[in-house]
Design goal:
By secondary structure, the chain is mainly alpha-helical. The chain has one domain. It is 62% helix and 4% strand. It has 4 helices and 2 strands, in the order ααααββ. It has a two-stranded antiparallel ribbon with strand order 1-2. Strand 1 (153-155) and strand 2 (161-163) form a beta hairpin. Helix 1 crosses helix 4 (122-149) and helix 3 (74-100) packs antiparallel against helix 4.
Length: 168
């Protein structure tokens, strides 16, 4: 029996908490997109700042979702870091402004108002989890997984060699 071969082109990081994280980001992307679409179509003039910020949040969640799914590639890994850092900054800045200057959001709130109060503070917690996941997985593990997927010749004590396969 041979050991399973990992496909270096396939997503190595999309397991366990990574899948849950992507699902939560996708749900937030749908929620923010729907919210901003309805707000902008129905009454954009009433609260242009809040509705524009909701649209920005939707774009950030969509970008973060796609980047997390494709984060095995270096470019998408960097895009995921940028998107999630931007998301964290947005949540902290808009959340703080919504509490210190409520007149800015008098007519309606954004996805990030009150640090995501309307979404049970998921927008506040999500970027921390996303950054932790990216940091804990990192490029080093991706490189190690790619190296593990490449068969290598190993010398065995009696002079025989094997090509990265288990004898079990």
């Amino acid at each position: 029996m041979t050991s399973p071969q990992l496909d270096p082109a396939g997503p190595v990081r999309m397991t366990g908490i990574g899948r849950v994280l992507v699902v939560v980001y996708a749900i937030m992307a749908l929620a923010a997109t729907g919210r901003s679409f309805v707000q902008i179509v129905q009454d954009f003039a009433a609260a242009p700042l809040a509705y524009t910020l909701s649209a920005v949040a939707a774009v950030v969640y969509i970008l973060a979702t796609v980047a997390l799914v494709k984060s095995d590639a270096r470019r998408w890994f960097v895009i995921a870091w940028i998107a999630i850092c931007f998301e964290l900054a947005g949540v902290l800045i808009v959340g703080t402004l919504s509490l210190t200057h409520p007149e800015l959001f008098l007519h309606d709130a954004t996805v990030w108002s009150g640090y995501g109060f309307g979404y049970f503070w998921v927008p506040l917690v999500l970027p921390f989890v996303g950054l932790w996941w990216l940091r804990s997985g990192g490029r080093a593990q991706n490189d190690e997984a790619a190296d593990a997927a490449t068969p290598s010749t190993v010398r065995i004590g009696d002079g025989a060699s094997t090509s990265g396969r288990s004898s079990w």
